Amino acid sequence: MKQILSDVDIAFYQQNGYVIVPELIEPAVAHQWKAALKTRLMEEDKLHEPSGVRVWMCDRMDPVTVAQVQSPKLLAILQQLIGPDIEFLSVKAVFKNAQTTFNSPWHQDWWYWRGSNKVSIWIALDEATPENGCLRLIPGSQRQVFDQREVEDGKGFGHRLLEEDVAQMNAINAPVPCGGAIFFHDLALHGSCPNVNGQDRWSVIPTYRNGAEPDASTVWARSLLLSGTTVN
User: Fold this and answer.
1) What is the pLDDT of residue 150?
2) CB within 8 A of 129, min separation 6: which ones?
3) Across the strands, what pairs with 74?
4) CA distances (Å), 46 to each of 41, 42, 50, 124, 217, in order?
5) How far apart are CA 200 and CA 190, in angstroms?
6) pLDDT at 46 over 70
7) What pLDDT, on the 0 to 100 scale, is given for residue 205?
8) What is the C-alpha to C-alpha distance for residues 15 and 185, in angstroms, rounded to an integer?
9) What is the pTM for the complete model shown?
10) How does DSSP assign the chain, residue by residue?
11) What number is the average pLDDT over the span 80-109?
């Protein structure tokens, strides 16, 4: 297995529930990926989706996304964090601009699929800053399943926590350059800063699971086995 993360990086992930990889892909590749996603969203008439979110399952992806979600570098990092048996499940485009300025609320992804724990990768297709809506995280929160509030306001994230729920927790902003990424556990509490400067802040978030762990989730009808074997 190719070693990309250091032992310190892996220990940081295990302790905090996330790890930042500042240069997962080249900026030129990020721009190409953004253009491909934008074209597809326009074709699907989803570019102005109020939530600023679009999910595709593993059998509904464009060629650029197919290549990137199973790149050798990405897969090598996942094997360091999860183990040799890697399944790809789905990918989510998150697009913030002058029309989608609101922040993503605090939440744990696990509540949306349950079953075995997953790892997602938040990949910046533009530079992500606190001013245009970078990710926020609460280190160490992956050790607990938090009770979620049920909220329907047309912005997605129906299972969430409110700011008052996390007020006493140590939240951090996680800015990353274009092409940078954050690998995070599905119980890691996260949200995003609001986009206050109206600049584009596109990201793409593929999700994976450990094929050696049985998964009771019914969200995915199928998966794409990237390495090893699967019991699912």
Assistant:
1) 74
2) 175, 201
3) none
4) 5, 6, 9, 20, 27
5) 20
6) yes
7) 98
8) 11
9) 0.95
10) ----S-HHHHHHHHHHSEEEETTSS-HHHHHHHHHHHHHHHHHTT-TT-TT-EEEEETTS--HHHHHHTT-HHHHHHHHHHT-S-EEEEEEEEEEESSS--PPPPBB-THHHH-SS-EEEEEEESS-B-TTBT-EEE-TTGGGS-PPPEE--SSSS--EEB-GGGSTTS--EEE-B-TT-EEEEETTS-EEE--B-S---EEEEEEEEEETTS-----S-S--EEEES----
11) 88
Residue corresponding to tokens 């092409």: 179
Residue 60 buriedness (CB in 10 A; 0-12 / 13-18 / 19+): exposed
Can you read off the two tokens belonging to residue 162? 């409110």
Residues 72, 78, 80, 83, Cα dihedral to 10°: -110
Q: Residues 125-138: pLDDT tens digits?
A: 999 999 998 999 99
Does 1 have pLDDT greater than 60? no
d(CA 33, CA 14): 29
CA dist., res. 150 & res. 111, Å (int): 11
